[in-house]
């Protein structure tokens, strides 16, 4: 493996983006099933929400000019026409010195200017009300289309539907939603020392950690991860499992065996496929250098470093931005924090550094966690990470940095 010939992260990402333009399939699902799915087309509202003028309080709908001088010491007497019923079209129109009782959410008369809360009114009898307050135009009223306008684009293609969006879509009478079918991501762990979840720990063997982190990472991206049982460092076994995974999945990730050790078989396995092409053998990322980017049978096959933290950061740095670009998603959110440490790095490789954040003296500060890439617990507890440009020689205490939150 040519690990000296490493490729910058941005260049590696460009290669992936330009080579693997996924043929995304779409399906129509019920509104509830669109939760956490990516939209396959823009959604436009056919209706105004609300489609009628409604009151936001329990009170009396009035005209501006009739109550202009109303106050507690000088209440205005209005004729009560009746009550607007919830869910019914309001059948009243206001004339001079008239009002209508409207409960919260009910339709108000078309020509009412405002609704005065009942706390400011005194109902004398079924026909008369004293109003102790004037009204502003549109006070306590939601106008037609104030929430959602007819023909408004509610969401663009690629948007990931969240729980609040479900409410918007329900309100806009959208019953079925066209979404992208989930991409299936195959996860293969390799290594003579790797045990699957049901095997007892023995000798110098360890449990498969990477498959489970990767599973969580892809679930969080709302894809469909599929864990295969770990495979030993045996070329034929790796090739056979790869064949199965390539057949069953849209993207295949193979962790371990990407480096230069004599048993590192991932590259050989990839190259054994007739229809394969290796684009990258090592990226300028720390941790994460031993990463292979290849195409097998026109599918993206990535060899990930075996160290769990490195494996996870390659996915964060390379695969997640690619997935985001496929679905036209927004970039990951970050917060700006003050770095609390003088951190030195060598030029030439981008570095990803896990950090914890805290509030101190009204400032949000962050501190790196010093965790070896072969360990996992500290990493699991951290709040996020920063990326240090390959040209930089470090970050100084007091520098402002972007922290990408997990
Ligand atoms: N001579 C060199 N040695 C190493 C280099 C190097 O450049 N020259 N790079 C180091 C770095 S950095 C990393 S990262 C690892 C990557 O190695 P591989 O991708 O080939 O992975 P393995 O050798 O198979 O495993 C490395 C390490 O990770 C553990 N591992 C592997 N898979 C899993 C898993 N599914 N769950 C938990 N832990 C896993 C494995 O047991 C090893 O301890 O290479 C360095 N060496
Ligand atoms: O790159 Mo290794 O992936 O530094 O731990």
TrEMBL record:
Q: Which cofactor does it need?
A: Mg(2+)
Function, as annotated: Catalyzes the insertion of molybdate into adenylated molybdopterin with the concomitant release of AMP.
Q: Which GO terms describe its cellular component?
A: cytosol
Q: What is this protein called?
A: Molybdopterin molybdenumtransferase
**Source domain of life:** Bacteria
* EC number(s) recorded for this UniProt protein: 2.10.1.1
Pathway(s) served: Cofactor biosynthesis; molybdopterin biosynthesis
User: What biological-process GO terms show up in the record?
Assistant: Mo-molybdopterin cofactor biosynthetic process
Q: Which Pfam families match?
A: MoCF_biosynth (PF00994), MoeA_C (PF03454), MoeA_N (PF03453)
| NCBIfam families, per the entry | molyb_syn
Q: Where is the MoaB/Mog domain?
A: 186-325
Q: Which reaction does it catalyse?
A: adenylyl-molybdopterin + molybdate = Mo-molybdopterin + AMP + H(+)
Which family, according to the similarity comment?
A: Belongs to the MoeA family.
UniProt keyword annotations, A-Z: Magnesium, Metal-binding, Molybdenum, Molybdenum cofactor biosynthesis, Transferase
Tell me one GO molecular function of this protein.
metal ion binding
